[in-house]
Design brief:
The structure is a single chain. The two termini are about 35 Å apart. This protein is an alpha/beta fold. The longest helix has 23 residues. The chain is globular and about 70 Å long. Strand 5, helix 8 and strand 6 form a beta-alpha-beta unit. The strands form 3 sheets. The protein has a 7-stranded mixed β-sheet, with helices on both faces. A 4-stranded antiparallel β-sheet has the order 9-10-13-12, covered by helices on one side. A two-stranded parallel sheet has the order 1-11. It is about 40% helix and about 10% strand. The protein contains 13 helices and 13 strands.
Amino acid sequence: MEGGIPRAAAEELDAADPLAEFRERFVIADPELIYLDGNSLGRLPAATPDRLREVVEESWGGGLVRSWQGWIDWGGRLGDRLAEHVLGARAGEIVVSDSTSVNLYKLAGAALDAAPGRGTVLMDAEDFPTNRYVVQGLAEQRGLRLCRLASDLDGGLDLDLLRSALDRDVALVVLSLVSYRSGALLDMARVNELARTVGARVLWDLSHAAGAVPVDLAGTGAELAVGCTYKYLNGGPGSPAYLYVRRELQAELRQPVWGWFGQREQFQMGPDYDPVPGIERFLVSTPPLLSLAAIDPALTLVEQAGVARIRAKGLLLGRLADDLTNVWLTPLGFRSASPRPPEQRGSHLSLHHPDAWQICQTLAAEAKVVCDYRVPDRLRIGPSPLYTRFTEVWDAMARLREVAARRTYLSRPAGLARVT
């Protein structure tokens, strides 16, 4: 028994966990290491190395260029799986390609070009940096007014503020469904409804949501979205991203990067750009096949577990972390920096502490707990339901309490490293 919360309670949750067997389907190189950074980079699925070996040795090594007959539409096939099992979209509305930033640029540029006469773009002032930078660049290039909506670092964007900023001059709203810093979860259906009343479009970043919380792009009337595959989808570092364009909107939009993978009759090598009518018109060039291959076995795990079960466990993990924070960490100078209860956020939570960066370093170096840090003073804790045990959350919070109480972290450098 520790402060009223027994470890046995976490053990009971592990014993009753319907997703427990999925942990064995990931590479756990160091069983003593507690990994709570799945919101940044997911663990390696155990099936991925063999899948990559197969592609390298058989498809590339043996099939050589002939393998393109099977490779050519991988992005679309993976996109359809994401649509059906993860993102609540229809077949032919999602394709895997490029990076999240590049996809954001393509869809934002296409949406702005399709909204002549509208001169305003809205974004969350606390959104992920690359989103803000891409939108800022597009607005400057087109001479548009960029409205940065003030957002609470812990609670996220206030929809009343969004409503007051929406008018008939707004062409595009760019938002993240789950805040990268605090985990705050927006109401997608409500935001889409607010934008529709003034004829504006919303471009969603689903990077911290996909594979962690249920997403219903079709049911909420979403029109545009992007996201990565290397967080809760476990596709690997730098694995290709995806983009979503609602079927009824596809023919209307022409993305700004004209490449031959979006061209009608691609191998006829025509003299002028003539994009295909479907989702493939948002492709650009030859995809990184080995990275695409790594998404395949990772996505299989999410499909088999089911996002509903993943979310149910994520809520329990979050509630355990909240309870332990209240009992153990609040007396040591920590403050929850995420919405509560866990239903109001994604699968990660943030803790505020003035020495959060030094504590983060000490956890990794001395306590074998890996999480991460985000400015200005947030310690992010990201359990991933497919492989994180309840006892790991309990143990990690206990180690965090010990590190904070001993204050050995004060010997760590206060200056930020290149990667935090």
